[in-house]
Design a protein that fits this description.
The complex is a heterodimer of chains A (about 400) and B (about 260). With about 400 residues, chain A is an alpha/beta fold. Chain A folds into two domains: about 1-250, no CATH class; about 355-405, no CATH class. Chain A is built from nine helices and 19 strands. In chain A, the strands form two sheets. In chain A, strands 2-3-4-6-8-10-12-14-16-18 form a ten-stranded mixed sheet, with helices on one face. A nine-stranded parallel sheet of chain A has the order 1-5-7-9-11-13-15-17-19, covered by helices on one side. The relative contact order of chain A is 0.10. With about 260 residues, chain B is an alpha/beta fold. Chain B has helices at about 50-60, 80-90, 105-120, 125-140, 160-170, 190-200, 215-220, 240-250, 255-260; strands at about 10-20, 25-35, 40-45, 65-70, 75, 90-95, 100-105, 150, 175-180, 205-210, 225-230, 235-240. In chain B, strands 6-9-10-3-11-12 form a six-stranded mixed sheet, with helices on both faces. Chain B has a four-stranded antiparallel sheet with strand order 2-1-4-5, with helices on one face. A two-stranded antiparallel sheet of chain B has the order 7-8. In chain B, helix 4 (about 125-140) packs across helix 5 and helix 5 runs parallel beside helix 6 (about 190-200). The interface of A and B includes residues 366, 369, 380 and 383 of A.
């Protein structure tokens, strides 16, 4: 109940938006997720409690860009900065969604929410004030790459919401960067609607500083013939959850996901994915990698739902995990729920340590153990990093990771 | 044979070496001395300890030396790390070269070559200079340059992996190369190319230990000495004709030596 009180004491009922009121009402009966439910049983209770400890902050302190803008054509947006976006060029347009469009879409989404499954979104939408909700409608082709930043200031809990409509036949590269300052909590919810024949290469890179926390939820609806590629990377959070929900609403769509989470010290980072095929001929290729060191804990739970209507679905989900310490913990559970009878679905999980024979081979060639481990980790990371759009050429994520691991 | 007067100091001295893994004794008192310019062949049944001996000389961390010493250029190297042994000039050619997905072969070769060059106090090579050097060395093993842009040994055939091993030997210019069944998995032509490469790389200041089951490699590279191993020991040492005798009579013939030992 504390969190409800916290939001309410922050402002009067009159200042709450309609969406906030709806979400608060939904949270009223059970303000926290059920710790015994499948989606929350592995979540560290005290860390979740730390996430909620900070006071809600609706205004950001000055935001420092994590890397310079290399190309003039790249479009950079920061959620929470109060500006009007209206870019209309010959081949494309990027415009802010109107208040009505935003309200209508979010309300519709909320109507499907379940308390445990969508707790992170309910919390986010209870906390997000108007200024911290960015809605975009993207149309056309030859669109310059888009970068969207979200951040949480120190000693506060910030909530940011992003809604994107990708119109028919639209094709775009979009990188979302979520940054947590020291001792902070960021609640980020993203709603992506891909209309027919649209295509997106979506990158999500989230990293924190000392004792920062993140609840990151991503909801994607894919209409037919759309293509959604997601490359994601989460690291350096005391506590982080990345919840992905993808709904191929009419089948005949393609989804590729390559994600990775890296945990050290006593951090806990979890990824939960739910991919639902609601039409025939859907395609999914998913790989999730975890790397856990020290006393940290990484969790991956993935579910693929293939109802009867989703005939000829072709789905693959693989969880690959690297355990670098005897005290680290990895939990992984890829699952399939198949009703349709004409499908091709596979899933699997592996947990291993750095390959001793590979290390010995490199060492017999004069490469030190530290360098050999770095080379091995770099090859482990490379598959995911090369899938993250925009960042790969100009933001040397690999170096950052290797130097910090 | 080993007591024969030599003009220079030995490159490698293995003295009464015993070693184990998981408390299981594998080597039980092996002694072997290798001088510059020499080629030694070690033969023996599967599981007799040949490959283990090569790995222990190269510093494999899974084995414990329980007795004896390994000296390289007069220095005891028992406690040196594998990379230190490599940098100082010991090369192990693997029986099954390891695939390292995601690590570029060219970059791997460059990093290892520079590690050796750094030890030799030679200037380290940048990418451009290294490409020049590696092109020259590729000729030795007649290897397609396309293999440089792939991941280390990934998708290589058995023969290509072995050529890649000899390419590494050519780049690292070791004082001693221990080649563990380099001939396995090679067709006749590839065997000739690899053998010719090994001969081109070696000289009067370096030495080679060939671990093999077959005479066919020794037809190409004639050893000065042949050692027969059994149950973690060298049970007989002879000149190159010992290998021919072994080929003719089989390992059963050596069982009598074991009894004598």
């Amino acid at each position: 109940m504390e969190i409800i009180e916290k939001i309410k004491t922050n402002k009067s009922d009159d200042n709450l938006t309609e969406i906030q009121k709806i979400c608060l009402h939904k949270l009223q009966s059970s303000p926290l997720p059920n710790p015994k439910s499948e989606l929350w049983r592995l979540s560290n209770k005290s860390k979740l409690s730390t996430f909620l400890d900070f006071s809600v902050n609706e205004k950001d302190s000055k935001f420092d860009m994590p890397y310079p803008k290399n190309s003039q054509s790249t479009i950079r947006l920061i959620i929470g900065e109060n500006y009007q976006i209206k870019l209309i060029e010959k081949n494309y347009s990027i415009q802010q969604l109107s208040e009505d469009e935003l309200q209508k879409y979010i309300k519709e989404q909320i109507s499907f929410f379940k308390q445990n499954e969508n707790w992170s979104d309910l919390l986010n939408l209870s906390l997000s004030c108007k200024n911290n909700i960015l809605g975009l409608k993207i149309n056309g082709s030859k669109i310059p790459p888009i970068e969207i930043f979200s951040n949480a200031s120190s000693n506060s809990l910030n909530a940011k919401t992003l809604v994107i409509f990708l119109e028919k036949n639209c094709d775009v590269e979009l990188l979302q960067v979520n940054l947590g300052k020291e001792n902070s909590s960021l609640s980020q919810s993203t709603f992506f609607c891909l209309k027919e024949n649209s295509s997106v290469n979506h990158g999500v890179v989230s990293y924190g500083e000392n004792r920062s926390n993140l609840l990151n939820s991503l909801n994607v609806i894919q209409q037919k013939n759309s293509s959604y590629n997601l490359g994601s990377l989460h690291f350096k959070f005391n506590y982080a959850r990345f919840e992905i929900s993808i709904n191929q609403s009419a089948g005949n769509a393609k989804t590729h996901i390559k994600g990775m989470q890296i945990t050290k010290k006593d951090e806990q980072i979890s990824t939960y994915t739910k991919i639902e095929f609601n039409g025939p001929n859907g395609f999914l290729d998913q790989i999730n990698k975890s790397l856990a060191d020290d006393k940290s804990h990484a969790v991956f739970e993935g579910s693929i739902l293939v109802p009867k209507v989703a005939q000829r679905t072709d789905a693959s989900q693989l969880s690959r995990n690297l355990l670098l310490s005897n005290l680290a913990q990895i939990d992984t559970k890829p699952q399939l729920e198949i009703i349709a009878d004409d499908v091709k679905c596979k899933h699997g999980a592996t947990i291993s340590q750095l390959n001793e024979e590979e290390l010995f081979y490199m060492r017999t060639r004069g490469i030190t153990l530290t360098e050999a481990s770095k080379l091995q980790l770099s090859s482990y990371f490379q598959e995911i990093i090369s899938f993250i759009p925009i960042s790969k050429d100009k933001w040397d994520l690999l170096d950052k990771l290797l130097n910090e691991n | 044979m080993q007591s024969k007067m030599k003009e220079s100091d030995p490159i490698l001295e293995v003295e009464n070496l015993s070693a184990s893994t998981d408390n299981l004794p594998i080597l039980k008192g092996v002694s072997l001395t290798v001088y510059p310019g020499e080629i030694h062949a070690i033969m023996g049944r599967n599981g007799c300890g040949k490959s283990t001996l090569s790995k222990i000389i190269a510093g494999h961390p899974s084995y414990n030396i329980t007795n004896g010493d390994i000296k390289f250029l007069g220095e005891n190297i028992n406690s040196l790390e594998p990379e230190e042994r490599s940098q100082s000039g010991i090369f192990l050619g693997f029986q099954y070269p390891i695939e390292i997905p995601g690590v570029s072969n060219l970059e791997f070769l460059r990093v290892s070559t520079n590690a050796r060059r750094k030890f030799l106090k030679k200037e380290e090579l940048d990418t451009f200079d290294f490409e020049e050097l590696v092109k020259e060395k590729l000729e030795i093993v007649k290897m397609d340059p396309a293999f440089l842009s792939r991941s280390v040994n990934q998708g290589f055939s058995g023969g290509e992996k072995k050529r890649n091993e000899i390419l590494q030997m050519a780049l690292l210019e070791p004082k001693i190369a221990i080649l563990d069944e380099t001939d396995s998995g090679l067709d006749i032509d590839a065997l000739r190319i690899v053998a010719s490469g090994i001969k081109k790389i070696s000289n009067a200041q370096t030495a080679i230990i060939l671990i093999t089951h077959y005479q066919r490699l020794l037809d190409e590279i004639k050893p000065n000495y042949v050692h027969v191993m059994s149950d973690g020991q060298i049970i007989k040492t002879g000149e190159s004709d010992l290998a021919l005798e072994l080929e003719e009579k089989g390992y059963e013939w050596t069982d009598n030596f074991v009894k004598e030992t």
